Automatic annotation (TrEMBL):
Regions that span the bilayer: 31-51, 57-78, 113-132, 138-156
Membrane topology: Multi-pass membrane protein
Pfam assignment, any one: FA_hydroxylase
GO function term, MF aspect, one: iron ion binding
Protein name: Fatty acid hydroxylase
InterPro entries xref list: Fatty_acid_hydroxylase (IPR006694), Scs7 (IPR014430)
GO process terms (BP): fatty acid biosynthetic process
Domain Fatty acid hydroxylase: 64-202
Subcellular location: Endoplasmic reticulum membrane
GO cellular component, one term: membrane
Keywords on record: Endoplasmic reticulum, Fatty acid biosynthesis, Fatty acid metabolism, Lipid biosynthesis, Lipid metabolism, Membrane, Metal-binding, Oxidoreductase, Transmembrane, Transmembrane helix, Zinc
Cofactor(s) needed by this chain: Zn(2+)
Length: 225
């Protein structure tokens, strides 16, 4: 009979990814760094959009929400198709492991739960150039929301791996991501939200225990023929 318990990874500690000490050092990031950096950048973008570009607050709020929402989609797509890229060659296998596979093997490695700040700033700059070309001055509100979405994702992801399951509405995120790590790595790709898993039908499958419980809870009308 298939076990319904989540399997815990055996690996503990922090593995070495690069022989070069500088590159190895860059793979370790304290979670506070990106949260502070992207929080400040987002504030600066909103300030510039309102003070220098003259956007009214309601417009900036809508752009901010749109950027935040768009990030949840990008998060899902990257996690599903980039981080879990099929290892069809040694190069792809190495790339996949360095980007994300190491996190699955060492999920409690707190220093590798965020992209290095230098790389994050490069990516943010590239996104600014792309979004500016597409959105014009609307980029200031939109990118601010997008970056806060990334910061929120980092906060949730770190909390899931570093702290106990909370006894509130956020526990669904703990359970959702734990299933991805310990039972179904081909499901539950959303970290900050299960929305896109619902839309693209990659929600966790019901395990045998849940199915049995569901069957035992079926009500049978004694008066039925």
């Amino acid at each position: 009979m298939e076990s319904t318990k989540l399997k815990r990874p055996k690996h503990k500690g922090s593995p070495k990814l690069f022989k070069n000490p500088i590159l190895e050092k860059l793979t370790h990031t304290h979670i506070s760094m990106p949260l502070i950096i992207f929080g400040l950048i987002s504030i600066a973008l909103i300030y510039y959009g309102i003070i220098e570009k003259g956007f009214e607050a309601p417009i900036m709020v809508l752009l901010f929400i749109a950027g935040l929402f768009f990030f949840t989609f990008v998060e899902y797509i990257m996690h599903r198709y980039l981080y879990h890229i099929p290892a069809t060659s040694e190069r792809k296998k190495k790339l996949s492991y360095t980007m994300h596979g190491v996190h699955h093997d060492y999920p409690k490695d707190k220093s590798r739960l965020a992209m290095p700040p230098v790389l994050s700033l490069v990516v943010a700059t590239i996104l600014f150039i792309i979004y500016r070309a597409v959105l014009g001055d609307y980029v200031f509100g939109f990118l601010a929301g997008f970056l806060i979405g990334y910061a929120a994702y980092l906060g949730v992801h770190y909390s899931v791996h570093a702290f106990r399951v909370p006894n509130n509405f956020l526990k669904v995120l703990w359970h959702h991501h734990s299933i991805h790590h310990y039972r179904e790595p081909d499901r539950a790709f959303g970290v900050s939200s299960p929305l896109w898993d619902q839309i693209f039908r990659t929600m966790p499958r019901k395990n045998p225990r849940a199915k049995r419980k569901q069957k035992t809870n079926v009500y049978i009308d004694p008066e039925a023929n």
